[in-house]
């Protein structure tokens, strides 16, 4: 490890710890988040570097920070480095360490957001500051965005900025969370680039019944009992397998032997081979190839001794590329069977799947510069099964990828398990690698030099 790398790690580690301790917890309500705390922190950190900084507040406390290094050539490509500052809630009782303590233990920073995605937000800020201090003179403009409200559909963050402050954030190329996890394969190390993501389809099911006294349940029309059967059917439903282009590109790039590649690219064989994979990988691969339906919230009843006459059940549905509302509703009705007619459907949100092509200068740049740290590695396309702010830029016909650069201490399976999970943490070596990557990509893409 060089002195420069050590300095980058240390600077990024301290900034990440501070962001974690700000506890910008987004529970989905407009008054949560408090991202202004981290926007102020990052502005203070970046101030004095000669950067053009702006804050945008979509609602009280819901602040995003934008920094710019203007390019010399208006016709040159522009690059946006985007990280969000909000995090999901955490239950301290389930953590080994304080989820908002930001402790550095055995070379790892612990805390909510360490993986999702304050590690990227902080490393992008450190790289941005280092470029500014190094008198970086790109042909194309470089933008840094620390955005609010990613964890609740971007209403007060990326969506707001694209709609109301477009000129401040729009760029030809966008990098956000979270690929780049070194993935061993029979043909060498692969670095997944998130070129697309599944769509969001939130559905509320209203299930009716007849009120009655809780002391006389015999043959009552209990809405909660009906709802339990609805939940069971959704949980046991086996959605159709779909082999889409991004999945095919990923598997064909991995160099697996034919006895693995064949079933993973087979509509009939994929579900069988999932049974023989590690559970974390199987869960990820299943979600990449199926529309998924997850019952997540239920509200029922008014009093202990009253048979409930209504239930609200929320289902988190994630859609595949090319699938629209009609496709999803057909599968949901198939899952419910004869109970479909007993349910009233209320759409909570709908955000289709999105993707970017891989034959782009940004793809080439990521592939090229990654070789410095992982010689002989190969960037491969991948689909994230969650939602990111990249989708807002893809809708504006911009190329947006999820990437980073992580150490081999982090496994593909372990990385995925820590998203919104307990004991979230990141090693400092990964922080240094990502920081160096952003500097290298900016130089490669925006100036054509190292």
Task: Explain briefly what this protein structure is.
With 450 residues, the protein is of the alpha+beta class.
Descriptive overview:
Keywords: Hydrolase, Metal-binding, Zinc. Residues 195-340 form the Peptidase M20 dimerisation domain. GO terms for molecular function: hydrolase activity; metal ion binding. Its cofactor is Zn(2+). This protein is α+β, with helices and mostly antiparallel strands. It has 2 domains: 3-186 and 354-446, Aminopeptidase, CATH 3.40.630.10; 199-351, 2-Layer Sandwich (Alpha-Beta Plaits). It is 35% helix and 23% strand. It is built from 15 helices and 18 strands. It has helices at residues 3-22, 36-46, 118-133, 158-164, 166-169, 223-236, 245-254, 258-264, 270-274, 279-289, 325-336, 361-370, 390-394, 412-418, 428-446; strands at residues 52-59, 62-69, 79-84, 104-105, 108-110, 142-147, 173-176, 190-197, 199-208, 212-213, 292-300, 306-307, 310-319, 343-351, 354-355, 378-384, 399-402, 425-427. It has a 6-stranded mixed beta sheet, sandwiched between helices. Helix 1 (3-22) packs across helix 15 (428-446). The chain is globular, with a radius of gyration of 23 Å.
Secondary-structure content class = alpha+beta
CATH superfamily of the largest domain, by name, is Zn peptidases
Stretches with pLDDT under 50, minimum 5 residues: none
Overall residue-averaged pLDDT value: 94
Strand order of the largest sheet: 1-2-6-3-7-17
Distance between the termini: 20 Å
